Amino acid sequence: MSCRFLVAVTVVAGLALATAPAIAQQPHPGGPESYAAPTLPPPPPSGPGSYALPTPPPPSGPGVLGETPLSVDAMVAGVNSRLDDAVGYAYTIARNGQVVAEDGAGQARRAVDGTLAFTPTTRLEVMSVTKNMTAIALLKLLQAEAVSVDSPIARWLPLDWPKAGGFKRASQTPITFRHLLTHTSGVKQAIEAAPPGSGVGNSWSGLRALVALGATPNPAPSNYKNANYALMRVLIPRLTGQRVVTEQRAYKRYLLWLNEAVFEPSGVGSVSCWESDDSNAALTYNAADPAAAGWLVEREGAERVHCGGHTGLHLSSRDLARVLVHLRHTTELLPADVRAAMFAGRLGWNEGSNNGDGRTDTLNVWWHGGDGSFEGSREIHTCVMALPQGYEAALVVNSQPGGACGVLLDSYKEAAAG
Question: How confident is the prediction for the chain on average, in pLDDT?
């Protein structure tokens, strides 16, 4: 993995968006062993502040709470003040599909790397926000294949993988898709109890070793572990109909499905885990060391096989906002009942969402964050957040300070409190 540093923030609410700069379409991964990618149309022509989205139906997702109108200016001020020391970031705020605030600040590349401004269309690896995108794609695929989220996953694991515990077809305590989506599969406990040299992890071989080791579902409390979503990089290709899934095929099938099911309908364009032009890509930095060069974080070359599932996707704040808007205010990504189940069950959302995990200050707020730490104290922080009153927000930051979801939530609370 190569590395450098950036920051971006996006917030979206509502649906019908006015004018916004056209978003350049990213090329889809290709090359010798790749599957032909679907032709993805470019985003509709737009001007400042618009996604050119269809007129939305009445909101039918999370309830609309709060009678006091949100001061968007106050929320933006809160975001900017909390990220004053960041190298670069971008944000977009929308309500019912209409962009109400969007901007970028700082640098995607410092002078030492060839100065480049950070904007709402700057793409960066979004770290664990990838999980939220993966959850949407998986739920759409399960619905299309008439497979329950409570179905055991054993049937869709690679045929040649040895299986034990909850990964076996005959298990009395099978691991289900819901268990993976909510981090209640027992995978964390299994990995922590694994003997030295077992090789368990998030790579193809590590996941194979984990499935062979076995795990037992642990419904409560949630025990966050990347391997839950890394397994979806394997399961999604099987669910799309590929009987024989290999390490080289899995990530390609995963990307094809996410582009077809999530990003194309959202007008985002093609998405992968690497940049098409490394010389013009955003980098990650140590905010406290202005002389240090940045790193480009991407899954390139031999690392492509680790693309997706739990981490790796490259998206901008505006990209993330588009997805949230289409998720909450249309049925292009998920049918209304599946969308409702995603929110109600916190499938692909942080366990603390909507007053979960013992919290009492997050009613009707759903989010998922992403954090990455790299050599030389370089960092990436990202967040997607669905807020009351039909607002959505996304934030991408290429350095310290951390806690992107905390930045958005605290800024929202201040603005809502007036």
Answer: 86
pLDDT score recorded for residue 32: 27
Cβ atoms of residues 380 and 124 within 8 Å: yes
* CA atoms of 86 and 150, how far apart (whole Å): 42
Residue 103 CA, chain-centre distance (Å), reads 20
Structural tokens at position 311: 């981490």
Q: How far apart are CA 228 and CA 218, in angstroms?
A: 13
Residue pair 258/134 in contact by the 8 Å Cβ criterion: yes
Distance CA 418, CA 67 (A): 12
Based on its alpha-carbon atoms, the radius of gyration of the chain, rounded to whole angstroms, reads: 20
Tokens at 160, concatenated: 């040649």
> Quick count: other Cβ atoms within 10 Å of Cβ 68?
10
What distance in Å separates the CA atoms of residue 202 and residue 379, rounded to the nearest whole number? Answer: 21
> If you search the block for the tokens 């008439």, which residue do you land on?
146
279 vs 357, higher pLDDT: 279
Q: Please tell me the distance from the alpha carbon of residue 261 to that of residue 332, in angstroms, as a whole number.
A: 9
String of DSSP letters for 201-226: SSSHHHHHHHHHH------SS----H
The answer to whether 355 touches 362, Cβ cutoff 8 Å, is yes
Q: Which of 34, 104, 26 is nearest to 274 (CA)?
A: 26
HSE of 270, CA atoms in CB hemisphere, 13 A? 18
* Distance (Å, whole) CA 250 – CA 257: 11
d(CA 271, CA 104): 21
| Cβ within 8 Å of residue 25, ≥6 positions away | 40, 42, 43, 269, 270
Q: Which helix (H) or strand (E) holds 364?
A: none
CA nearest 16: which of 50, 43, 58? 50
Q: What is the pLDDT of residues 11-68, one digit of tens each?
A: 443 333 333 333 233 333 332 222 233 333 333 333 333 333 333 333 333 333 344 6
- Cα separation, 318 vs 325, in Å, equals 10
Distance CA 387, CA 95 (A): 9
**Rounded-to-integer distance, Cα 40 and Cα 333, Å:** 16
Maximal CA-CA distance, the chain:
59
Tokens at 93, concatenated: 């705020």
